[in-house]
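Margin note: ligand = manganese (II) ion.
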Amino acid sequence: MIRIEDVINKVQENRRGADTDLIRRAYLFSALHHRGQTRASGEPYLVHPLEVADLLAEMRLDEVSVSTGLLHDVVEDTLVDLDTIRSYFGDEIALLVDGLTKIANISDLSKEKQQAENVRKMVLAMITDVRVVLIKLADRLHNMRTMQFLKPEKRARISQETLDIYAPIAHRLGMGKVRSELEDLAFQNLYPDDYKRLSKEVDSRRPELEAALEKIKSTIAERLTENEVPFIEIQGRVKRLYSLWKKLKKQKIMIEQVYDLIAARIITENNRKYCYLTMSVIHDIWTPVPERFKDWIAIPRDNLYQSLHTSVIGDGGQPFEVQIRTQEMHHIAEEGVAAHWKYKENSLGKKQEDDALDELRKTVEKLLLPLVENTEEHEDSEDFIETLKLDLYPKDVYAFTPMGKVIQLPRGSTLIDFAYAIHSQVGDKCTGAKINGRIVPVRSELQNGDVVEILTNQNASPSADWLNYAVTSKARNRIRHHISTEQRVESIEIGRRLLHQEAEKFQLSAKKFLHNDAELKRIANEYGLGRPEDLLASIGYGKTLPRNVMAKHLGPEKFAELDPENKKDNRLKTGMKAVKKFIGLGEDSIVVKGVDNLLINRAKCCNPLRGETIIGYISLEKGIVVHNKRCKNVSHLMLNKERIVDVEWAKSEETQKQSVQLLATTENRTGMLAGITNAIANIKTGIRDARANVSKEDLGIIEVTVEVFDKKHLDKVVGAIEHVPGVIAVERVNA
Ligand code: MN
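Resulting structure:
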């Protein structure tokens, strides 16, 4: 078993002045809390954090990272909480441990397949510190190295996740060595049969391949020396099993046809001209395969990888690949961003170290930013890892259902959006929600990694104010749809009542008539409507007049006979017409915001006038009743806030005239009535009624009903009356 002193020595070797005391304390804390725990292998659990810390020391990471490596599983696997970590080790380590714990929770939750990309994005969205990625990769690497003791299903799941998430991240960060090892271990555990078959096949050729490589290496060394091209090292490699397997599968070819089954790698001194010189020597020895030459030095790959690649036909006709790069490029190719730490000067001061860290952070951000365009790299079959759309600061937010399904939503989405994203029924019936087990308001904004449980109730329904909190169009459309459905239900009810009243006016049995589905359907069809409810809704919306329905029901003769209007005297008839004109059944002079064609009535108590501020109240009897906002009754209506709707004056060219009753108080003298009616007539305003009285106080009281278009018009009329000599005051009745 590795000892903490080995780790500390490694840190001290690499970083002068490192706080080894911190590492020792982290070790003791981890040992204390993991005591008694064992790994699947039977070893003490502590081996795992120690090995992770060792990998981090190997990467030359700072003591904070190494200490975090020791503590990384404490919050997840023991009773210690984050606050305790913070009180012992400070904010920085607590933040790193928290990040790692959250990522570990993602792995535990994401049991659903087909969501690899979302999980990958989520992991990245949650990484707030470069070191979290590196520690997580070290953690995963050690787990992959020691997974032989786990059950096959668990091995397969972890391996799949490694291929989906961690190998691509290592690749994006240019950490070729870590990525290769992760991939080969995952391949071995996920496809054990393929792995065995392929490794057997490669092993059977290995002596031959090794011999070929030796010969190639010595030929290259000889010819480079001959041509006085300096080099540091020549390596040979047989293609890794996972990348070989992928290539065979993708291109459906035999192993003999793989151009880069073996490859020679030449490491030159840190000047790219040696790479190109070496290349020319190689092409002088062997014939290059056309189209196989790649200059990743002039144009580095997105993950900073630099190298020259060429394939040539070897002596026996066996093609092989040659990779040429400087030592610096080689470090980057093997260790990616980790190389930034490792190969910096050993004696950096604190300030320089901070600068270096800052520079690294920027590099990582750049590397992990989304690759918008497909570059040539992705056509390269040697390396056909798909484009990874990574984004450290995504426009999206990722959250989980309790079952571990990842739900991706735009940033700023709330629990309402989440509920509708699961299913529209879940949204409709949502009454509340829990985030990470805690009850929260449904308008709460989602954070990355939240585990969200939506609480529902069969009797619940969406509330209109959700529109203020829903961001996604799916949620908004559903809520709107629901509101309009509700309004339809309401208007059917209104239509039914209006038709009921009308039938009674015609001396019919309203109940019987309303239950006569066949007849209602017949009338509905005459209006081009399908069902009786459509007819009722149309009445409720004010599109169809109940009186006209009666006409269709009764036929012209019977209608005339029963028509209550025929029984009234003429004066009443005119009055009815006037009333109808300004109340305006079906008339469109007021609109309810966002909804068309609802039945609208002006409230009799305040008789609102065009131009005045108005408010609508949904009444089952009369549809939407529109009040002047200052009407004294409005405050009572406010008790039923959910029935208040926004209304506004329709912008109509043809403004409707409306009757308004005014009361003028005057001195008691003759000619007052004539003076006032004259003044009104002079501004071309219609007078419907005018009468004069004398009050107990011996003042003249003149009531006059005028026809005006809007408030402005009314103000003009009032002004005109006020100017008549002898007028003391003018007020509006019922306003
Ligand atoms: Mn771990």
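The CA atoms of residues 6 and 100 lie 24 Å apart.
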